[in-house]
Every structure is written in structure tokens, then in C-alpha cells.
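Retro notes, item 3 of 5
We never archived the inputs for the manganese (II) ion complex last cycle. Fixing that now. Sequence and ligand:
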Amino acid sequence: MDMLKIADAVKQNSSIAIIIHVNPDSDCLGSASALITALRCMGKKAHIFVDSPIPGRLSFLADEDYFASGADDYDVCIAVDVAAEYMMGSMKEKVFDKSPVRCCIDHHGTNKGYAQYNCIDPSAAAAGEIMYVFIRDYLKVEITADIALRLYAAIASDTGSFQYSNTTARTHIIASELMAKGIDAPFVMRTLFERKRIEQLKLRAEVIENLKFYNDGKICVAVVDNDMLSRYKMAFEEADDIAGLPRSIIGVEVGVYIKVKGPREIKASLRSNEYVDVSSVAASLGGGGHIRAAGVTINASQDEAEKMIIDALEKVM
Ligand SMILES: [Mn+2]
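Structure as it came back at the time:
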């Protein structure tokens, strides 16, 4: 783990670029915004780069001045929560590759360590857990309430509000220390998990009506396509909470959420409950992720992609 080297690179240089993954979630955005707050406390010039719009519900983690208007030159670049280089989108070429010092802070077990300095801890439930230790013990910046709220949002989100199997005793200890900073934790929970537009609930109802079951009901598939989204005037990002739905049904071991983004562009999210390693199943199809939550992009028709996923799952079940 190159945590010390990353901290030294930060201390010895004056401008830092932070890159988060495309389709940013609360973990990468919370961790990056905590880091940028800490870096600016240290007097560094720092900006976040992301090759996707920020979802509206995460705007509380994204102050406008975090983002640079153009791609300037930076001494150090840190990719946060980015499992593979391609997940930086165009920021890989524009910012990461151009940086003299390239670092990565991540918690995905599939991360091969593409940077010069890699701090990858798959035992961390969220990048936010690693970032907490990095800011407090390595950058030695005080965890203010501002930083704490961002890290809490990061950790709460990747643990599905502390429900997923990646949640450890350490997760709760860190969450407790963050709460002790006086953050409005119920606000974070409401914003991330509770508040929904009525259209989101109507979409969910339609998805439930059309669930498909395989392997004696152990695999459940939910599908959302552009047609459904346009009827409810929604974007895919707003439907992300569907990912946890199929797995929540009694008897289901693996929930598959298929997003039909184009005629031959299928994005699937795989979630398992107890025994199926969906990260290896996703990897066999060219994707990756964690043991109980992984994802894959397949360039095939919806039917072909669905069959590929079911076949790959049935092989290991
Ligand atoms: Mn994450």
C-alpha cells in the first residue's frame, strides 16, 4: 500500500487533480469532496474531474468550485474509487495520463493497480473508509464536520445504509467517529435512501410487474429501458435504486438489473446474497466489482446479453 507515498507526493507538490469514475456515486463524490476540502485546507490548488454530469440528488456533495473549467496541468493526480482506467472516461487522457505523478485510492478487489502509487484496500466497504484514514493520519488534516459529512455519505452509500455484507466493525467505528463530529446524519440518509420522486416509484411498480425468474427462482432479472424511462421522464441514474430490488425477494440469490442503454449497449448490475461471487461472474463477461455487487457492459442485444449473464451465473450456481 502506497498511502505514505501518495501523502508525500501531495505534501511535496502544489496542485492536485482528483478523478472520479463516470456515472459518479455518493462514494466517489463524497470521498473526492472530502479530499478536496482537506487539500484546500493544506493550501493546495485542487480540482475534481469527472466525465459525467453529477446526479441532482448528490449536489450536496458537489460545490461548483470543486470543478475546473478547463484541464490545466497538475503536479499530482489521484483517482478515487476508480476500479479501472477506462472508468475515468475522457479524463484518463485529458488529466490522468498527463500528470507526472499518478495515484489511485480505491477499494475494488478487481483493481489491478494501474497507477504509479496504488492504495487499494478491498477490505474497505467504501473508498470513504480509506479516505478517512488518509486525511486524518497521512495528510494530518483535522476531520471537520464538513469533511465528516462527505465521508459519512460515501460510506453510507456503498454499504447500502450499513446493510450490505461489506459493512464491518471498522465501518461502524469510522461512521461513529464521523457522527461524533456533529454531522446531520439523518439528512444524509434521507437524501441518499428515502426521498424519491413519484415517478421513481411508478417505474419501480412497472419493473416489479415484469420481473423474470430463472434457476428455480434463485436468479431474478429486472429490466429498465429508454422507453420506460422516457414515460416517467427519468434518467438511468435516477433508477439506480432498482439494482437492489431483485435480490431483496425471498428465495433469490442473485439479482440482475439490466439497463438497456441502446440497441446493443447493455449495462448489467449483479448483486448476490450469500454464496455467489458475482465479481468473478462479471469478470468472465468483461466486467468487475465486488463479491456481492458487480457490474458489466455487454455490447449485444438485450436477449443475447441476458442469456450470457444467466448462462454465466448458472455455471457457478
Ligand atoms: Mn465505492
